[in-house]
Amino acid sequence: MKKSVLLFAMICFCVSVFGQNITGAWNGLLTIQSKQMNLVFLIAKCGNTYSAILDCPDQDNYGISVRSVKFEASILTIQLANSDIQFVGKLNSNGSFDGVLNQAGISFPLRLSRPEADDMAIGKSQEEVSNVKGS
Question: So what CATH class is 21-134?
Fold first, then answer.
């Protein structure tokens, strides 16, 4: 009986860690010197490769290019194109990524989480993310 319970727990753990779907919109609130800025990473997957774009709705800046997206061992790494900006975060138990946004050697704490239903209007569809990345 103990072996069955242990086996079931291990299977559930593997499915939750290795089967995590990170595609879609991920929202974060970046705070820099008492100013806050909403960030929305829109992640898509084609085969085994992830792609993304970044929206900054507070600055009316949409479709910012992302050079690379990696998700390995519960660690999400997003490197923006044409800049030295990078997000690195670890998937936590509530399904959010807790991490830091590094820019020019300065680190800012950032949590990325799935948007609430009302926030979905901010994001774009995965097809739009793929189209932007493919052009």
Answer: mainly beta
SS3 67: strand
Given a cut of 90, whether residue 133 has pLDDT beyond it is: no
Block residue for tokens 């909403």: 38
pLDDT in tens, 8-38: 444 444 434 446 899 999 999 999 889 999 9
The model's pTM is: 0.74
The H or E element containing residue 132 is helix 126-134
Q: What stretches of 1-135 adopt beta strand conformation (E)?
A: 24-32, 35-46, 49-56, 61-72, 75-80, 85-91, 97-103, 106-112
8-state DSSP, 120: G
Average pLDDT, the chain: 81
Sheet holding 61-72, edge to edge: 24-32, 35-46, 49-56, 61-72, 75-80, 85-91, 97-103, 106-112
